[in-house]
Amino acid sequence: MTAQLVHPKPANFSLESTSDLRELSNVRRYLCDIHGKLDEFGYRLAEEGLQALILGTTEVVTNVIRHGYNHEADKPIQIIAAVENGSLRISVHHLGMPYSSSTTALPEVIEPSDGGMGLYIISRCVDEVIYEEHKDGYQSIHLRKILTKGNDMDNTIERVGNVAVFQANFEALDTGSVNDFKQDLAPVIEEGALLLLDLSQVEYVDSAGLGGIVSTLKQLRADGGDIKVCGLQKSVRALFELVRMHKLLDVCNTREEGIKSFEQT
Fold it and tell me: Is 161 left (phi over 0), alpha (psi -120 to 50) or beta?
């Protein structure tokens, strides 16, 4: 065999494994070890994010064993992990056959079987999946999970008249930070306040973050309060427009505009 499992990108962590399903427990421990060291890089990943990453990665390794190696024993599998550009990249390399990555949709009818949902599960567990076939004979599956900065400043709440201005100091309002977001907003929600969310420091929002905002909106309005957002960065504003968040709440350009908008209602 002339092909070698050597990945050209710098790695922070690596695991040499084999095509044995019993090795999956080592893969789980490997990912937990990485999770425990993320603060050394200035990042963090919530527990639910870790569990999703473990599920997605073990599904990849299982597919490699079953489909790439067709259950042949003692074949090499290399797992490389690196923290880069605010994400954790997990690359799984093997010398088996490439397998199709085209079926990532959930079947309309789920029937009892021994498989068929792995690719869909993988796509839902991480933020990006790339399947790569190399000329020198090895295959790679790259997973990317977005991290939250571990050294973010605390979120702050400032009272301006009868408006509570919440300064979100997350780099990302996502699965990893939405629980902290809800917890920090709990006192404002309880009093049914007029809330202005200043998202000027937020560079990324995912579906969990959007869900946190909508949940807050519903709770506030149920108690006679209301919510507006301001300071959206370009990428966040594009997402808000895509999902039509402006139909649910007012989107203001600046903090001053948001406060004045409350005063006029």
Answer: left
**Of residues 11 and 65, more confidently modeled:** 65
The predicted model scores a pTM of 0.56
3-state class (DSSP) for residue 196: strand
Q: How far apart are CA 82 and CA 218, in angstroms?
A: 39
In order of 100, 127, 165, the CA distances from 7 in angstroms are 22, 21, 47
Structural domains of the chain in order of their starting residue, each with its CATH number: 13-149 (3.30.565.10), 156-263 (3.30.750.24)
Q: Is 224 exposed, middle or buried (0-12, 13-18, 19+ CB in 10 A)?
A: exposed
Are the CB atoms for 193 and 224 separated by under 8 Å? Answer: no
Secondary structure percentages of the chain, helix, strand, coil, to 5? 40, 25, 35
- Residue 91: half-sphere exposure toward Cβ, Cα within 13 Å: 21
Residue given tokens 């300064």 in the structure block: 167
Instruction: Write 130-135 long-range contacts (CB < 8 A, 24+).
Output: 131/98, 131/101, 133/98, 134/3
Instruction: Determine the longest span between alpha carbons in the chain, in angstroms.
Output: 74
Taking Cα atoms as reference points, which of 196, 152, 144 lies closest to residue 172?
A: 152
Torsion of CA 47, 52, 54, 56, to 10 degrees: -170
pLDDT digits (tens, 9 = 90+) for 201-250: 898 899 999 999 999 999 999 988 999 999 999 999 999 999 999 899 99
